[in-house]
Amino acid sequence: MEKTWNNRAWFMVLPVLLLVAFSAVIPLMTVVNYSVQDTFGQNEFFWAGTEWFTEVLESQRFHDALWRNLVFSGIILSLEVPLGILVALAMPKKGIWVPVCLVLMALPLLIPWNVVGTIWQVFGRTDIGLLGHTLAGLGLDYNYVQDPLDAWITIIVMDVWHWTSLVVLLCYAGLVSIPDAYYQAAKIDGASRWAVFRYIQLPKMGRVLLIAVLLRFMDSFMIYTEPFVLTGGGPGNSTTFLSIDLVKMAVGQFDLGPAAAMSLVYFLIILLLSWVFYTVMTNAGTDRPHRGDAA
């Protein structure tokens, strides 16, 4: 009997494809068009080829901003992922405190990014801010506006406060999905707390940890609003990340060609690093030994 195919389901997907094409593909093609041309206004364009890409890749300004992004993302991942796992492990799995903890964890994620930057901008001021005034009262010379180290510490602490909840919620979802039979078997075998985490909880959280790492890497690597509101990229250029530099180039200087080339390079870097994270973590999850192998 010949099997017939019903292609009418594709009509349900068509609106999504049109929306993606309108919101992503068309703007992307516009950026590609600007990246290979130059303009002097009045909608007159001149072919530039790869000139803008060469200029961006050879620019020390781009290299410095890229290095800041890599350092910032590395610090954020090394702090938020372990902290998120620890908090998720400490949260109750049953009882009335479960919804209370989940709501408290979700609160920072509900605050808009520009409001987060404004909150910490006021919070860190030495005259009226609780954090800045307290540190000044303790005799610490804290000033995130003038000291690059203080600015970096403030931005890192702000991001950890804002986004660790995402890692916590993802890890918690992975933990509560583990059947009780695994814990009962581990208890019968006399497994230690570390063995339970290493061979039961961590493997079961592998997929959600992959999602958490990818999301936090991409978000931290593309961070813009919070540091821009808090420090404006300063003091000097110490907190000028690629996103801030890109906006300054496109909006402040109106260099559309170099800005378009830089945005495409920026996009490719994020895509490449995300692929590396995904490949490494997937292979690590595949090669991870099972509990029976440890015996």
Account of the 3D structure:
- By secondary structure, the protein is mainly α.
- The chain has a single domain (60-294), classed as MetI-like (MetI-like fold), CATH 1.10.3720.
- 74% of the residues lie in helices and 2% in strands.
- It contains 14 helices and two strands.
- Strands 1-2 form a two-stranded antiparallel sheet.
- A hairpin with a 5-residue loop joins strand 1 (37-39) and strand 2.
- Helix 1 (10-35) crosses helix 13 and helix 3 packs across helix 7.
- It is globular and about 75 Å long.
- It starts with 9 loop residues before the first helix and ends with a helix.
- The model is unreliable at 291-295 (pLDDT under 50).
Given the C-alpha coordinates, what overall shape results?
globular
Structural class: mainly alpha
CATH fold name: MetI-like fold
Report the count of strand segments: 2
Amino-to-carboxy terminus distance: 53 Å
Give the strand line-up of the largest sheet: 1-2
Summed over residues and divided by their number, the pLDDT gives a mean of 87
Question: CATH top level?
Answer: Mainly Alpha
Q: Which homologous superfamily in CATH is the superfamily?
A: MetI-like
CATH architecture: Orthogonal Bundle
Order of helices and strands: HEEHHHHHHHHHHHHH
The proportion of strand residues reads under 5%
Number of helical elements = 14
**CA-atom Rg in angstroms:** 24 Å
Helix content: over 70%
In this structure, how is the largest beta sheet organized?
2 strands, antiparallel
